[in-house]
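From the shared-data thread, chain only:
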Amino acid sequence: MTMRLLVSGGGTGGHVYPILSALAGFAEPLTVLYVGRSDGMEQDIVGRTDLPFRGLRMGGGLRGVPPWVAAGNAALMLRAGWEALGVVRDFDPAVTFVTGGFVCVPVVLASWVRRVPVLVYLPDIEPGLAVRFLAHFATRIAATAEASRAYLPAHKVVVTGYPVRPALWTTDRAAARAHWGLEPTDRLLLVFGGSQGAHSINMAVGRDLERLTEAAVVIHVCGRDDEADFAARRAALPAHLQDRYRPYGYLHEMPLALVAADLAVSRAGASALGEYPATGLPSVLIPYPHAGAHQYHNARHMVAAGAAVLLENDELRTQGLWPTVQPLLDDPDRRTTMVQTARALARPEAVSHIGTLLTGLAA
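Structure, as tokens:
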């Protein structure tokens, strides 16, 4: 019989892509409904798949906002909870699977009220407010790494690893590099600040743009807000460097970029814990210093393994990228060691492990 699965996660690509990856690993037929914010980026990402999507009308978060704004957002969340209760009642799932973001709160609470088992997946090492709260209502909690047990009810936690997109395991590096038109001697630097860009990283790229493009072909995912600015910066480069700089507002071909790259510079979002190990990609990680600073735990996990170098956001602003990136680009032996240590963190069984948990809960 087809399993009915309700899924939810939003706010960042790091909450959406683990769901899509986990679904891609199911051998059994599924009937799936994705619930996200009606104005969230998840609607655009899921819209590129064949999954049905239901949007909930929600406000913003509760942290770091004035009390009256928090009160208004809480009222909107209550309304979203009522909507979610109707969704769960009408869809009647066998199990609910969520990854994080405030949109998951009404979905999990509605599932709990309707006595639907819930699997919460924690992509990051340290849970945010939403996942900490939802842990009390979860039947089981899947985690990327063992270190997450310290923050959650340990008896509910199963360490599965990070479920990555199947293309990251199957894409051939030579084919990926050919896709970007790279010569055998070209080094490819991939720079991005997450699914919505990171302005401080973008500004650092702008300051060092000519030196970076002299040293490597640069794929720069700069976010929609800065896309026009960096298209202009590309046009202002010397003619021989323009083709070596590729700015994108959003990159749907990210698996091809990850597989082809020699070095990544990025925030330390949850995807770094799964996608960099899967592709053996050395990285410079710049944790986002706000919103609970949970990215520091992700970065330190990678740095302690020898797979990444930590660059503080304040250092990025004062020193730029070049002093950290240049030694890594010029040291292939060090990058080779980082490739090996990154691959040692990979968990190719994560997708099947999560699928087994969901099937067991549904039964």
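The chain has a mean pLDDT of 91.
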